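Q: Hi! First time doing this. I have a protein sequence and I read that you can turn it into a structure. Is that right? Here it is:
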Amino acid sequence: DPDYPPLCFCCDETRDQGGIVIWCHNGRGMEAPVAAVLGKLDAFNMFDPFWMDPEYDLWYKLLNCGIRLPASTGTDWFVCTNNRVYVQMDGGTEFSYASWIEGMKAGRTYITNGPAVDLKVNDLPIGSTVEIGGDSAEVEAEVAFRSYYPIDAAEIVVNGSVVHREEWLSGPREGAFKYGTRFDA
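A: Yes, that's right. Below is the predicted 3D structure, encoded as structure tokens:
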């Protein structure tokens, strides 16, 4: 209780069939960190409206432990059927189911309920690892968005905390901004 029988059995069976495992709706469960540490997960489902805080909190804790799990989401809840996960394809890679799955596993994902987003950090695309050496480093984030609905704000989040927020009174449907800062080790 609450994770019995262990879902890791299902993770193993999924992998045995050549599938990928995306952990869903279990931000308060105790088995998710164990499954992540054991390498049984390929991605972590977030963006559930009723469980958002526990799932994001757990995801950030796993990332801070060095367990890199791509963000994913789904449309299986009646209250959030507009959530989507997008995968950035490698340049020159032909789109296919297999290349999409590889992009998912590589972490080139973002989740949204509307706006299309492009993010680069130090000119590296979504899913890249930004190497920070020494005692501190300059980091520049470039954000671009396009949306059917007007956008009133966009945030840059680092380790679960908002480090920068852009706001627009006019509610643009597309735009871009840059944010640079120095991180100390």
